[in-house]
Amino acid sequence: MKNTVSIVLILTLALAACRDRAAEKRIAELESRISQLEGTKANQPTQNPAAPSPTSPAEPEKMPEGPLPVISFNTTDHDFGTINEGQKVVFTYQVTNTGKAPLIIQNAQPSCGCTVPDWTKTPIAVGGTGFVKAEFDSHGKTGVQNKTITVTANTWPKTSTLKFKAMVVAKATGANGPAAN
Questions:
Q1: What distance in Å separates the CA atoms of residue 128 and residue 2, rounded to the nearest whole number?
Q2: pTM for the full model?
Q3: Buried b / exposed e across 92-110, counting CB within 10 Å, b at 16+?
Q4: Which of the chain's ends, N or C, has fewer CB atoms near its CB within 10 Å?
Q5: How far apart are CA 145 and CA 85, in angstroms?
Q6: Is 106 helix (H, G, I), strand (E, B) or coil?
Q7: CA atoms within 13 A on the CB side of 66
Q8: What structural domains and CATH numbers belong to the chain?
Q9: Is residue 155 within 8 Å of residue 71, measured between CB atoms?
């Protein structure tokens, strides 16, 4: 709907100011902008061709220079085994800074709302240790559960992925077996 209104507006401007060069230039800029917003390439260059296009892919980040921390985990995978639906289980991944600068864990993002992470909030000195804790709530979850936590830190690369799994046994109900009294 917006595109149709924009095109009608452009055509109206074009008809009203057919011989006016400034208006023609503005119309070309607007058409180019509409093409960018629609995700297609414009036929005419924009006013500032050196500026990055909003639809162009971002350049990959480059490794920062200087000494960096290195995040090392005692394990990146954990298996809770078989648990009952509704049970909360916790595992703590041990973190060691094996780099050459203090390690700062900036965030720990779980793959779903059933996992609550916690982590060391203070800088971890070179050779020092910290933690990333995962608390998994199996309420409403049954079967094999594979979850991740993406840890963001001042390292290179910036993110690390921790994984855990659990086999969640459904609560007994009258429909799937004898109910507990």
A1: 56
A2: 0.64
A3: ebebbbebebebbbeebeb
A4: C
A5: 11
A6: strand
A7: 5
A8: 1-59 (no CATH), 71-169 (2.60.40.10)
A9: yes
